[in-house]
Amino acid sequence: METLHVYPNKSQQKAVVAFLEALKIPFDTEESLPPHVLKGIQNGQEDIKSGKSIALEEFEKRRRSI
To answer: Which Pfam family, giving just one, matches this sequence (predicted)?
Structure first.
């Protein structure tokens, strides 16, 4: 079995899905996140690795004191 990666635009996607369903070909869909979201996740992970994080309890304590 082979894996095919296709990158249809919105209008093409409906046709591709209909085609695969008509031929009873199993498929998975995968939604990717926008680049700015992926960058934010990466930045957050780097912050955690470098020790720039606090526990939830500490966050709540600081929030209540505002």
So the answer is: DUF2683
